[in-house]
From TrEMBL, chain A:
<dbReference type="InterPro" id="IPR010656">
    <property type="entry name" value="DctM"/>
</dbReference>
<feature type="transmembrane region" description="Helical">
    <location>
        <begin position="271"/>
        <end position="292"/>
    </location>
</feature>
<feature type="transmembrane region" description="Helical">
    <location>
        <begin position="399"/>
        <end position="420"/>
    </location>
</feature>
<feature type="transmembrane region" description="Helical">
    <location>
        <begin position="168"/>
        <end position="191"/>
    </location>
</feature>
<protein>
    <submittedName>
        <fullName>C4-dicarboxylate ABC transporter permease</fullName>
    </submittedName>
</protein>
<keyword id="KW-1003">Cell membrane</keyword>
<feature type="transmembrane region" description="Helical">
    <location>
        <begin position="312"/>
        <end position="339"/>
    </location>
</feature>
<feature type="transmembrane region" description="Helical">
    <location>
        <begin position="92"/>
        <end position="118"/>
    </location>
</feature>
<dbReference type="GO" id="GO:0005886">
    <property type="term" value="C:plasma membrane"/>
</dbReference>
Automatic annotation (TrEMBL), chain B:
<keyword id="KW-0997">Cell inner membrane</keyword>
<keyword id="KW-0813">Transport</keyword>
<feature type="domain" description="Tripartite ATP-independent periplasmic transporters DctQ component">
    <location>
        <begin position="38"/>
        <end position="165"/>
    </location>
</feature>
<dbReference type="InterPro" id="IPR055348">
    <property type="entry name" value="DctQ"/>
</dbReference>
<dbReference type="GO" id="GO:0015740">
    <property type="term" value="P:C4-dicarboxylate transport"/>
</dbReference>
<keyword id="KW-1003">Cell membrane</keyword>
<dbReference type="InterPro" id="IPR007387">
    <property type="entry name" value="TRAP_DctQ"/>
</dbReference>
<dbReference type="GO" id="GO:0022857">
    <property type="term" value="F:transmembrane transporter activity"/>
</dbReference>
<feature type="transmembrane region" description="Helical">
    <location>
        <begin position="100"/>
        <end position="121"/>
    </location>
</feature>
Length: 424, 205, 349
């Protein structure tokens, strides 16, 4: 059964089929052959359910807001402002991208939304100062991983509920690793810019800076309203996506008058296209993971890999490897849902701290979602930037190496996550 | 004979018009689904903040819009060649192989979509049979599912058209209205009007 | 793999064989040595009440049948409750534990379990009512059977409680209070009756929303509150017992009716044996977790017990909601509810 599943998936995938076909056809064949008792239309039900989650609504909404802002003047003004202050530093725009992703991580719990909201406007900027498109996209999809580690994080909430760990503690524990990734990316951006001799932008004068700051005042209110709204309890992170659409519309249609209200449906069409292309895969992913979990494939695998009394470190590394591989193929949230209940008891028996385990798992989920072949962020970037798969993954290896290195640090040094226990 | 030919032509004409019309419907559904989600989520927040009452239907209507956009979008994304593919090997293949693959992929994809259309039709009948209603609005639950078979059939038709174009034309098409990346000028995808506009705006500033 | 085809000696297959040999199968009950492999699906994870119930159920049946009945227990995985019900209904799995709350759009009469202050505050008595009620075990069961689901037992996983970031002791405390509820018009009405502003929200966002104050309170049984750690972000918990969280042990109707009678009897016997086991499991778990909430010094939660007078104040406001339920669902709902109310009153005297 496992062989049938894998062969169909891999062959169709390599031939260049639309990704939805291997993702749907493989489990469908398994269902038809091995589970004759289950009606095939149950797959359809699972696909529908896959796209019915409330928290998923944040994805099209953030994409919509990002589309509005990048069509109009908002993102340009915002990035002009940041650029006037650090554009002249080596790697300044790349560092800005990583910083913007970290900041946006505190708004959205999803890496995909971050790819769209930060990636869309930042990519233009990076290209304009001489970055190669592949480097720009690689930076964006990997830096957006940080969103899953900075609170609020959908991945952590799912882990918390499945494992019975405190989401509040997990949220604090994610900050250390999140900032560590940012640090690595910032240093790398500096080195990369030196090595490829990315031309330095001219240093802006204070008069220019003042001018850009004034023009950016309204756009700067955007993160303030989103972050402020969430932390003061006016709206949830998912609803924040809706509010960002509202704010973007008010700025572009009413204040800047750069978009006519009659043009909004056209922008929504481009959002709808990306949403459909990504969500068909989310739907297929749900059907896929349902079939493998019903067939108990994950349990078969784990009972084979663990010795009778594994050490905590061994368990953590195995967990990391499994989640990393899983998230390379399937949506991170789904992976967390399936694998956490399987690994949690083993980890507890080996004496792993549940909060530390949650951080390791979330980290791997974030890492896997930007890693070929199936990382969801790659799909999102491919759809959003209208670039071929190969173009999107070309530049990712250095980032993946850095993320793996940070992952090893986070696994080995418990204190990176659990620092707060020493302060409080 | 003369008459037959004219009849054939008007058939083609009719099909073209029908296709244009279907595309109009698809674009309408895609864009207004996104707008509907926005209205629901924003409206719910504003209503709760201003009056203290939530819209109990906001979540349900949004989910409905997402489902409609996802499955009705299959066909439109196929026209535009925007379905996500891992095309590493495809991109590297020589043109003859590409041509062969493009035809095979379109055909098999269309077949899979038709199979899914059949199963989803069965699913719609099942849901209808249970008489289930939705939680908040208490409307029949199959209203939501009915967009799946429609979306799959329209998607399959689009992939069949794509197969036909690849058989007929010399170039390799990855979408009905889109040539392969290597055959586009500057290696760039077609721009939507909005994208063109946004670039024009950037150049002016 | 080779094992999978064997494991699909399923309901339909058993039924076919039975069709050809109906009289024989019923007569020679113990003579058959057919092996059964079934699936049992639950809404909870290993270690939680439903999963442990199903595991124990499987163990007893295996023993009774001398190893002929093998039940694979599935915990709540990537499927929602909604699709679990669909899977059971269509024969994809044979057994399931489901909550009437999640089938309320199909068997709408089952929404009666969402009515506030219908049952008593004595959990043992409530369980006794669930075990013996004709309204439930005959009339409501019939409703489910028309959807190919047979409830074999109604049992409770504990009483529902309120948590809040302020004290919830009187209806006045609910004035304008932003209460998180599941999406159901009946539940919305119940909280509106107290003057609250019920807010529908998915649980994925609930912890953060309670922490930040998007919503101010929620309702759940104790074991769920502790599991999801809601008490960490709430200052008060009211032992309101405003209704009971009901679970049903269910079987696919067509499948069950197609089984030989000796196997059917074995299943029904097991259901009976599980009744006290399930009650004890939930009682132990809810008591332990209540202590855990009370003794949690890092996140202190003040636990409020309602006096009989305070309960009565809520009860009075909750009673008119029953009319809404009847109007909304219909005549049969009225009959079932009225009979149940009589049974509950009789049990209290
Ligand atoms: Na986040
Ligand atoms: Na992934």
């Amino acid at each position: 059964m496992v062989a049938t599943l894998l062969i169909i998936m891999i062959v169709l995938l390599l031939l260049g089929f639309p990704m939805m076909i291997p993702l749907i056809a493989a489990p469908l064949v398994v269902l038809l052959i091995y589970f004759p008792n289950i009606d095939p239309w149950f797959m359809i039900q699972q696909m529908m359910e896959g796209v019915s989650g409330y928290v998923l609504l944040a994805v099209p909404l953030f994409i919509f807001a990002a589309d509005i802002m990048s069509t109009g003047k908002t993102s340009k003004r915002l990035l002009d402002f940041i650029g006037s202050f650090i554009g002249h530093v080596r790697g300044g725009y790349a560092i800005t991208t990583a910083a913007a992703c970290t900041l946006f991580g505190s708004i959205s719990g999803s890496t995909q939304a971050t790819v769209v909201a930060i990636g869309k406007p930042m990519r233009q900027r990076l290209l304009s100062v001489g970055y190669k498109d592949s480097s720009a996209i690689a930076l964006i999809i990997n830096a957006s991983d940080i969103a899953l580690l900075i609170p609020p994080s959908i991945g952590m909430i799912v882990y918390a509920v499945v494992s019975g760990t405190s989401p509040g503690e997990l949220f604090i524990a994610g900050i250390g690793p999140g900032l560590l990734i940012f640090l690595f990316f910032a240093v790398y951006s500096y080195i990369h810019a030196r090595r490829y001799n990315i031309p330095l932008a001219e240093k802006a004068t204070w008069a220019e800076r003042f001018q850009f700051t004034k023009r950016a005042l309204f756009p700067l209110g955007f993160p303030l309203i989103i972050v402020g709204g969430i932390y003061s309890g006016i709206f949830t992170p998912t609803e924040a996506a809706g509010i960002s659409v509202l704010y973007a519309l008010i700025l572009e249609v009413l204040i800047f008058r750069s978009i006519k209200i009659s043009e909004v449906p056209k922008i929504a069409l481009s959002t709808g296209l990306v949403t459909s292309a990504v969500f068909v895969l989310v739907a297929g992913g749900q059907a896929f993971s349902w079939v493998i979990s019903f067939a108990r494939i994950p349990q078969l695998v784990t009972s084979a890999v663990f010795p009778t009394e594994p050490t905590a470190l061994f368990v953590l590394f195995m967990v990391a490897i499994f989640f990393f591989i899983g998230c390379m193929f399937v949506d991170p949230i789904v992976v967390i849902l399936i694998l956490t209940p399987i690994f949690y008891p083993v980890a507890m028996a080996a004496g792993v701290d549940p909060v530390h385990l949650g951080v390791v798992i979330t980290f791997q989920a974030a890492l896997g979602s930007a890693t070929p072949p199936f990382g969801v962020d790659i799909f999102t970037a491919s759809a959003v930037f209208n670039r071929s798969y190969l173009d999107v993954i070309k530049g990712t290896p250095p980032y993946i190496l850095m993320l793996i290195f940070v992952a090893i640090l986070v696994i080995m040094i418990e204190e990176i996550s659990l620092f707060y226990r020493y302060i409080m | 004979m003369f008459n037959k030919k004219r009849e054939g032509l008007s058939h083609l004409d009719f099909i073209k018009r029908l296709d244009r019309f279907v595309m109009k419907v698809e674009t309408f559904i895609l864009s207004y689904a996104i707008i509907l989600i926005s209205v629901m989520i924003i409206g719910n927040v504003l209503s709760r903040a201003l009056t203290g009452n939530s819209w109990s239907f906001a979540q349900e209507v949004s989910n409905f819009a997402v489902i409609v956009a996802t499955f009705m979008g299959i066909s439109y994304a196929a026209r535009q060649g925007r379905h996500i593919r891992m095309s590493a090997f495809f991109d590297l293949a020589p043109k003859m192989v590409k041509k062969f693959l493009a035809i095979t992929i379109s055909f098999v994809t269309a077949v899979v979509l038709l199979v899914l259309a059949y199963f989803s039709f069965e699913y719609v009948l099942w849901v209808k049979d249970t008489g289930r209603v939705t939680t908040a609005l208490e409307v029949p639950a199959y209203f939501m599912a009915v967009f799946l078979p429609i979306g799959f059939v329209l998607g399959a038709l689009q992939f069949l058209r794509n197969m036909w174009i690849n058989v007929k034309e010399e170039e390799v098409y990855i979408g009905t209205d889109k040539k392969d990346f290597s055959e586009q000028e500057n290696n760039k995808g077609p721009k939507t009007q909005v994208e063109e506009k946004s670039e024009a705006v950037k150049q002016i500033i | 793999g080779g094992g999978e085809t064997e494991s699909n000696v399923n309901g339909d297959l058993g039924q076919d064989q039975n069709d050809g040999n109906v009289d024989g199968a019923e007569g020679e009950a113990t003579g058959s040595d057919e092996v059964y492999d079934w699936n049992f699906i639950t809404e909870e994870y290993e270690g939680q009440v439903q999963y442990e119930y199903a595991a124990k159920f499987a163990e007893i049946l295996k023993e009774k049948s001398d190893g002929r009945i093998n039940i694979e227990v599935h915990e709540y995985g990537v499927m929602s409750e909604d699709s679990q019900v669909t899977l059971l209904q269509s024969g994809g799995v044979e057994f399931a534990i489901i909550s009437p709350g999640f089938t309320g759009t199909m068997v709408r009469e089952g929404q009666l379990f969402a009515l506030h202050f219908l049952f008593t505050d004595d959990m043992e008595l409530n369980q006794q009512i669930l075990n013996t009620s004709e309204a439930l075990n005959v009339h409501l069961t019939e409703k489910y059977e028309s959807f190919n689901i047979t409830p074999l037992a109604y049992w409770t996983e504990g009483a529902m409680q309120w948590t809040g970031n302020s004290e919830l002791r009187t209806p006045e405390d609910f004035q304008g209070f932003k209460m998180r509820t599941q999406s159901s018009p009946l539940i919305l009405r119940s909280y509106e009756a107290y003057g609250a502003s019920p807010t529908e929200m998915s649980w994925g966002e609930l912890y953060t929303s309670l922490q930040l104050g998007v919503v101010e309170g929620q309702e759940n049984p104790i074991f769920f509150i502790e599991d999801a750690k809601f008490h960490e972000v709430q200052d008060y918990m009211t032992i309101s017992e405003h209704n009971i969280y009901v679970a049903m042990t269910t079987v696919n109707t067509q499948f069950f009716n197609g089984l030989p009678t000796d196997i059917q009897d074995m299943i029904l016997e097991t259901v009976e044996e599980m009744r006290p086991v399930a009650y004890e499991m939930q009682e132990r778990m809810n008591n332990e977790l209540l202590d855990a909430i009370i003794n949690n010094d890092t996140h202190p939660t003040e636990v409020i017990e309602l006096t009989p007078e305070e309960r009565e104040a809520f009860r009075e406001l909750a009673i008119p909601v029953r009319d809404f339920f009847i109007e909304d669902v219909g005549e049969d709902a009225e009959k079932i509810l009225n009979l149940l109310i009589e049974e509950i009153e009789a049990a209290q005297n």
